Amino acid sequence: MFGCCVAGRLLQTNIVQVDETHAYFELPNASTINHVCVFLVGTVPFPDGFGAAVHFYWPGKGFQLLGMISNEKPSAIFRLRGAFNVASASAAQDRFSTFSQDQQGQDVTAILGISIEPLDQIQAQLQSLQSSSVALVRANGNAPDATILAERIVKNLLNYLSGFMGGGVGPEVLVPMSIIQRWYDAILGKIRASGVGFLENTD
Known about the structure:
Mean pLDDT: 77
Number of domains: 2
Low-confidence stretches: 85-93, 97-105, 133-139
Oligomer: single chain
Number of helices: 3
């Protein structure tokens, strides 16, 4: 019923059945995995009103809900690298209890768990996951992503330089390296002292 494909590897159909509603794929050398695709192979559809919650298990850290697949959405791609959040690891580890959870080492075998459930229950789990993700971002001080952060840093530099140029920084303006060094020292000091929050006020 299910297939799994890790980016750069052969297709996996070697699913391990735990019971009628739970199964899993073993993902060897998990430390090298960036993305994984889970899909219905098309032979057996879900019963009406049902779908599958997809969980990821990293040994020693528990299960985390990644998302879902259904008859209407028969495949999904999930980014695994950097996505595991211990705070949202769920009690789903009990559902896939035939898997040994004491593996250690760099080339560990992770687990991609599939749990067939009513769609409304899956949606409730996904809503809870999104709420906890928002709460986690707020707890971390609304940490901006790398693109936004880079844009704010460059904007801060341009604003700083325009204060020395008396009319803005144009394409033909030469800036002494000593001024850039002063800006660099100042911004690094602020970041070390209070984080990147002050960059949000850069106009």
